[in-house]
Amino acid sequence: MEKIIVPIDFSKYSEHALEAAAILAKKNNAEILALHMLEMSDGLFSSSDAGQKPKVLFFLKLAEQKFEEFLNKDYLKGIKITPIVKQFKVFSEVSEVGEQHNADLIVMGSHGVSGFTEVFVGSNTEKVVRHSKIPVLVIKQKPNNLNFETVIFASNFSEEAVGPYIKALKMLPETSKMQLLYVNVPGENFKSTSEMEQQVASFLKKADGNLDQLNTVNYVSDYSIEKGIVNFSNLVGADLIMMPTHGRKGLAHFFEGSISEDLVNHANLPVMTFKI
Length: 276
What we know:
Low-confidence stretches: 113-122, 250-256
Number of helices: 11
Mean pLDDT: 83
């Protein structure tokens, strides 16, 4: 892990993310790319009015000054920090900036949303999870040590999840203990015990040929996958939930939803997602 990107909106949640990124950066000798998305009207940039240019420069300078003050934190001392100010809509271009700078991870804070707001607005963090090709770590609270000793990798263990699983293994320190989790739910996706075991065995064989991991597979039943993941994570005292995501968009996302985005909104634990 060499570069970690942290979107900053000056809220306490983005400060939680910045502090978490600092912990990870010190452990990995990584650089932090602190990204502030300056929300300004496109008209200010496209206007032919010469009087608009000083306004744009003023707002840019003001943002840079506020950004510099925000980054003056004791926990950032000794870490290489690269501040980036962009005029973008926060949710759709964070991943693009990360790719341009070859970032390995996006760390974001989130307070979660629910009810009417969740359906019709969603959260910026949720939208980054949906769009990002780079792994996203979502932090809900002020971080402690982020040792990630007990980690849950939740999946349906289909072939398309092999890539995210391999990436997840590479992201973890050697001291982490990963537990694989399959949540069985009622309905058309219900599987028998033997069907689940065969699917996971086939998955592990394709992933790395290490069938010893079968000893760390957990099968639980619940009314929804999200509830199964949260309940099991609480039961074993997990420090981190990792999972692949399709990043569905448009009508498919509206009608089918996304388990990873639901977890980002509702789980108190850190959640790390990997795009399929």
